[in-house]
Amino acid sequence: MLIVMNHNAGKKQIEAIIKAVELMGYSAAPIPGSERTAIGVLGNKGYVDDATVRALPGVKEVIHVSKPYKLVSRDFHPKNTIVKVAGLEIGAGKRPVIMAGPCAVESEEQILKTARAVKASGADMLRGGAFKPRTGPHTFQGMREEGLKLLSLASRDSGLPFVTEVMSPDTVGLVAEYADMLQVGARNMQNFELLKELGKIKKPILLKRGMCASIEEFLAAAEYILAEGNPGVILCERGIRTFETATRNTLDLAVIPLIKELSHLPVMIDPSHATGKRSLVPPMAKAALVAGADGLMLEVHPEPEKALSDGPQSLTLPGFEKLMREIDRMISFIEG
Ligand code: PEP
Ligand code: MN
Fold this sequence. Notes:
Blueprint: E1 2-5, H1 11-23, E2 27-32, E3 37-42, H2 51-54, E4 59-63, E5 83-85, E6 88-90, E7 97-101, H3 108-120, E8 125-127, H4 144-158, E9 162-165, H5 172-178, E10 181-184, H6 192-199, E11 205-208, H7 215-227, E12 233-237, H8 255-262, E13 267-269, H9 271-275, H10 281-290, E14 295-299, H11 317-335
Parallel strand pairs: 7-8, 7-14, 8-9, 9-10, 10-11, 11-12, 12-13, 13-14
Antiparallel strand pairs: 1-3, 1-4, 2-3, 5-6
Bound molecules: phosphoenolpyruvate and manganese (II) ion (MN).
Phosphoenolpyruvate (PEP) binds near residues 133 and 186.
């Protein structure tokens, strides 16, 4: 529920509302605006009887929010959130952040080489999987903690902070010891126990959209993390399942402006998993930036033909360098 105050409502009237809400057993979150203050009511499980607050002085209207998310919603938090990762700021019209690296960490040589190359081309962050969510159990499952150590090494060597996937609640502590940002993969978007654990840590979270998840389910998943106390969530669209099989997934670019209407959280695009095909990655990366994405996640491999996972969608090092030059020109153009 959202209580909207008259534009001339004073401090005392606002305090009286907060008190009334707390007496009802809920918590109140004042949202100051340029025109008027609104007060979000949190902690209710169902419909709240608004008769008491509606009658108090200074109240303009009471809006019942029936969405399964509140903290994530722009109604409750009109200002864009900026998520800080190491020294970087992501969201709110800041320069888009580029995260690049292999699908999976495969060896020291591979990750060092990739990190140095993507840094030289202008990437802001390194990506790489140590715990890999593979479709079948007979394929490469990732280097696990050894992979985290190699990512740390490559991160220190290149100066790039890194993001890596965490797959289970019991490894959150381990992954958080090493990573600058923790990624929830598409397959785990609705692993609610994992989301709750991630809500308890201080590190930022990159939440990928499930391949069959609606926007509402996506935002409700983010709500789990915020509800446990971690406000640092970045949403990442990585393609959804449709009838189309010519691409690995169907990239839903409309989520960028739509989520920006519905939520204050930053939105990123992963054109690598969204298309599954190297040649489609650069055009979709650029389209995402034009649509207002706060960042991109790109798979890059020094020898994609030898990659243990996702080779066909991985950019080569020169391919990434070329794309970064194009992106740089595009951003300068957009910024005018
Ligand atoms: C990945 O980023 O390597 C990955 C597995 O992505 P997704 O969860 O989007 O499939
Ligand atoms: Mn991958």
